[in-house]
Amino acid sequence: MTKLTHLTMADALAGLAAKEFTAVELTQAHLDAMAATKELNAYIVETPDVALKQAADADARYAKGEQRALDGLPLGIKDLFCTEGVQTTAASHILDGFVPPYESTVTTQLFRDGAVMLGKLNLDEFAMGSANITSHYGPVISPWSPKDEAGNFTRKLVPGGSSGGSAAAVAARLALGATGTDTGGSIRQPASFVGIVGIKPTYGRCSRWGIVAFASSLDQAGPMTRTVKDAALMLRSMAGYDPKDSTSIDLPVPDYAAALTGDIRGLRVGIPKEYRVDGMPAEIEKLWQQGIEWLKAAGATPVEISLPHTKYALPAYYIVAPAEASSNLARYDGVRFGLRVEGKDLKEMYENTRAEGFGAEVKRRIMIGTYVLSAGYYDAYYLKAQKVRARIAEDFTKAYEQCDVILTPTAPSAAFGIGEKMDDPIAMYLNDVFTVPANLAGLPGLSVPAGLSSEGLPLGLQVLGRPFDEATVLKVGHVIEQAAGPQPLPPLVS
Amino acid sequence: MSLDKATVAKIAHLARIKVPDSDLEQLAGELNTIMHWVEMLGEVDTQNVEPMTSVVAANLRRRPDAVTDGGYPEKVVANATDATENFFSVPKVVE
């Protein structure tokens, strides 16, 4: 029989319903696996007491035949979601000791549907990073990292970021699924790096209420899972209208799993020529071609499209996102929550608190944001970036006159080692070159595992869709998943 | 244009982050690298383009101006380092 931790969410639900095992057994299996793999540093806080209580409640519902959509499924929660009574850090020193007195809308909905919380997952500080190396709680190590015979890592690979703990936990079988958030690629890029599925829904699909804010016009929550079907199941629970988020959209949430019919005949798949970037490894290009062939074989029609402003997406993002961050992170001042470092007066207390509480990358982004919003520079930088953003969004609107979805690689490379790409912030930012445009335009995007690099590391393909058409994105992702076939397990998973 | 040490010190002050003088030079270098890179936005023709402030086309919703939540000050101040009688305390501001 398959190990309990290796089940998909869909199979676990079937097993629970058939009374093959209990939710407590399923949860305990995950807690044991977590205890045995602390070296990955995937979890910041483990919540076994909460988990076992929720699992027992789920078992009671199964006994009465009153089970819910995700009843008894053990999940990890990115530590950017506020969880009532459970420490929430955003992986920052400045939130030391913060215990939210409220629950985020997304986690409220997951718990409403019976999900079990195993703990809070590590991430880049305030979700700012693409390698999960900026966490105050230390880097997350990918379960794909090679070891020698003595069991020591010979190279520590990054799991991607910012949802690196979520990616590592799901790939390493330390959770059946996890929540992520995606501001510039933070669900899709780590999903690609560890060989799992991740979807960033359309902006407005999942409530942002109770998620620690990074860049409010770009942030979206989404599921990270091992199969497209699991992503469909989890997204249905996470999504939906919330009056507490003024940008939440009041639209019905479809049954995404029902959309996974495998039938994509006649679908037009846009292939953007501008995504053939200089220096992209040949194996990424090859994988992309393979993806096109798979979709063609399933009856879809590839269409070459143009997204002419693609190369301006990253620089526009690196103005808009830091500007919003500098405003959002103004609240961390040592007065109402988290760290306080005293000073001789109020102003010095603010400055000391923020100097000690924020890490280097967060400070850098706050300062860029402060600069581009400051008097005399606002028009030249911030307003200009917002106008470029409008042109990028317009590119997609025009492209969708010719196609129904867009297929691209998720990231320009496979995972790299911790410590590499550290000297040059722009080299790190380039990780998100294919994912950032969807955030700027607010579009749904999915990463699905499609193969391995020459080094044997996972590579993902990205499917972008029209606004609020996650169903088609998942349907196409499912076809790629089926065509790619079963993918190997990470070496640390047995 | 380039950010000099004095400009970086001014930004740090606006952002309320204490930066020691000895770090200003290096920080200026890092910020300049990023600011020079984003200069490429100047190549984009944005004549007659409205700045995009939100991807959601909908207007913000209205609701009645009524109290719908609250009444638990002890929960509100529960995370403060220094809370006295349900107030946030700060160093003395007015002499």
Compact description:
Chain A has 15 helices and 11 strands.
What features would you describe in this structure?
Chain B: This is Aspartyl/glutamyl-tRNA(Asn/Gln) amidotransferase subunit C. The complex is a heterodimer of chains A (494) and B (95). With 494 residues, chain A is of the alpha/beta class. Chain A has a single domain, classed as Amidase signature (AS) enzymes (Alpha-Beta Complex). Chain A contains 15 helices and eleven strands. Chain A has an eleven-stranded mixed beta sheet with strand order 1-3-2-4-6-5-10-11-9-7-8, with helices on both faces. In chain A, α2 (23-36) packs antiparallel against α3, α5 packs parallel to α6 (188-194) and α9 packs across α11 (360-373). The radius of gyration of chain A is 21 Å and the shape is globular. Chain A starts with 8 loop residues before the first helix and ends in a 10-residue tail after the last helix. Chain B is mainly α. Chain B has a domain at 5-41. Chain B has helices at residues 5-14, 21-38, 73-76, and strands at residues 83-84, 87-88. A two-stranded antiparallel ribbon of chain B has the order 1-2. The radius of gyration of chain B is 23 Å and the shape is flat. The two termini of chain B are 42 Å apart. The model of chain B has no long low-confidence stretch (mean pLDDT 92).
